[in-house]
Write a structure and sequence with these properties.
The chain has about 140 residues and is mainly beta. It contains one helix and eight strands.
Length: about 140
């Protein structure tokens, strides 16, 4: 009897661990994003100004003076006007920590120009729109 209870407990713990690991940012949001009307150009080296990008990874995002780790992801209610995801984060920045739940959605706009279909991806996060940049990002290894 104890072996069966231990096996059930072990399975529950393993399932919980897998569920916790499975919490990843939806793939359509991963990338480097700039404000819709902002620049995707790299700032000049040595210029000290606000961090101009939203960098989204599988684990969460980094933005101007904030770092947020994804804690849960779920769909937006079917009654919502726009499809998307409800994402919860544990954030830190400027010596403070906080939890936040946000609504994110993605959209791609395609324009036909000169025989080409050109596509631009946009991310809307709590009413702010960003456009995907061609930049890639990797953590500082120093």
């Amino acid at each position: 009897m104890h072996k069966a209870a231990f096996a059930a407990f072990s399975l529950a713990v393993a399932s919980y661990g897998l569920a916790a690991q499975a919490q990843q940012m939806p793939a359509e949001f991963i990338g480097v994003w700039a404000a819709k009307d902002g620049s995707c150009e790299l700032p000049p080296e040595g210029v000290d100004r606000e961090f101009p990008f939203l960098i989204v990874t599988r684990e969460g995002y980094d933005g101007h003076e904030s770092n947020c780790r994804l804690t849960s992801a779920g769909p937006v209610a079917p009654s919502a006007r726009r499809a998307g995801r409800v994402l919860s984060f544990a954030c830190s920045g400027e010596g403070e920590t906080w939890a936040v739940t946000e609504r994110w959605s993605g959209e791609a706009v395609t324009r036909r120009i000169g025989g080409w279909d050109l596509r631009q991806a946009f991310l809307t996060r709590e009413g702010y729109t960003f456009r995907r940049c061609g930049l890639t990002a990797s953590p500082d290894q120093r």
